[in-house]
Fold:
Amino acid sequence: MINLREKSANHERIICACISIFVFLCLWQFAASYTKASLFLAGPLEVLKAFLESFVIPIGTNRIFGHILWSLSRVLAGFAIGSALGVTAGILMGLYKPVDALIRPLFELVRPIPAIAWIPLSIVWFGLGEPAKYFLIALSSFCSVTINAFTGASSVDETLIGAAKMLGASDRQVFTTIILPAAVPHIFAGLQIAIGAAWMTVVAAEMVKSSEGLGWIVIKGQEINSMVQILVGILCVGIVGFILATVMRAVEAKLFVWNERGK
Structure:
């Protein structure tokens, strides 16, 4: 009965999503065809045609799939660096109060600053090449992962830790069997937020200086005054971002069936 209700609810959500997208596209096409918005807005049919053609006809030196791969490679590299540092820092802060007291003030100072605000400094420090992009993406990933890893590590029940030590468990065993399993769902929640932040950051970074990537497509479209190319780039950014978020949720659901977070 519960499964039938869940399936019915899922079907309803899918139908509502399809209806909302269809209505949006109809309104968009109407505005682009019959209002003054046509002066500065391309219609969805024109954008879709250009999007499909971009898989065959290069934009710059790459087809659209090549630009997507460039952006994804930058995101995955920076995301891996930022996430590894974030998990390490968050767990250490959650387990050791002196580390928390040492790192927390600096972390709270840096956390509210958006990654794109670091673009000028990243250019000064790393130049206009790939390292500057990796730095910005890693920074945007680091903050979300750190705060969630800290929450997971610091919220472990002290009674469980005490009981495990009374039974003879070593510090390593306590960490691997109690602290880490309790922190992993929080860490994964941070990873989901971080992958979205990393994706937004790479688009901004590619707009500054690049010759490939989805951000480059958007900014190049602005330079040549091509609204269609701008919207093709934006469409790709949205599609890939949606796929990344969906994959992360699917991986979490597969790995953490036992976890009831968010229910």
